[in-house]
Design brief:
179 residues; mainly alpha
Length: 179
């Protein structure tokens, strides 16, 4: 009953294209791996986690508000651009063998972003607790690795969300690419 949000995650991954997954998932993993190795080598992983613990909760809270605002704008708007995307289908984005509209895709993207932001916020609180209880440097490296992945992933998805909103409201399909 309380796991319906998993459907949004499933739908998001079903509808993302290979190049989008490469940029939004693989590149954060690579960057996070490099950052984690550098911090581990310098023996600063715990210090980094402590600093992230102090700045990330307010930052992620602001991002959650930003994403909620974007979702609210999309859902409550009733102008020509929104009416147009409610009837315009995406190119190759399907859920249960049915192509979805641009409107559905935007809603999925924003809800997915909000879910991931909430998970990152909860993970930061969990990490802050765990790092106080267990003081292994390897654990600090792993927690730092995960936090950086999620943070970069969120930023990349938000950038794409904002770009799509721009292209939808300004109908500049030549540069808008393959929505």
């Amino acid at each position: 009953m309380y796991f319906e949000w998993l459907i949004v995650l499933r739908d998001y991954f079903k509808t993302t294209k290979k190049n989008e997954r490469r940029i939004e998932i693989i590149s954060p993993i690579v960057v996070s791996l490099i950052v984690s190795i550098i911090y581990w080598w310098l023996n600063l992983s715990s210090v980094a986690l402590i600093h992230l613990r102090s700045i990330l909760p307010p930052t992620i809270s602001i991002l959650i508000g930003f994403s909620m605002t974007g979702l609210t704008i999309i859902i409550t708007s009733d102008n020509n651009a929104i009416r147009r995307i409610k009837n315009q289908f995406t190119k190759g984005r399907k859920i249960v063998r049915r192509e979805i509209t641009l409107y559905q895709w935007l809603v999925i993207m924003f809800i997915y972003t909000i879910i991931v932001e909430i998970f990152l916020l909860l993970f930061i609180f969990f990490s802050a607790f765990l790092i106080q209880v267990i003081t292994f440097e390897v654990l600090a490296v792993v927690l730092l690795f995960i936090q950086v992945i999620f943070l970069l992933h969120i930023f990349l998805v938000l950038l794409r969300n904002m770009a799509y909103i721009y292209f939808i409201f300004y109908n500049n399909t030549e540069e808008g690419g393959d929505l």
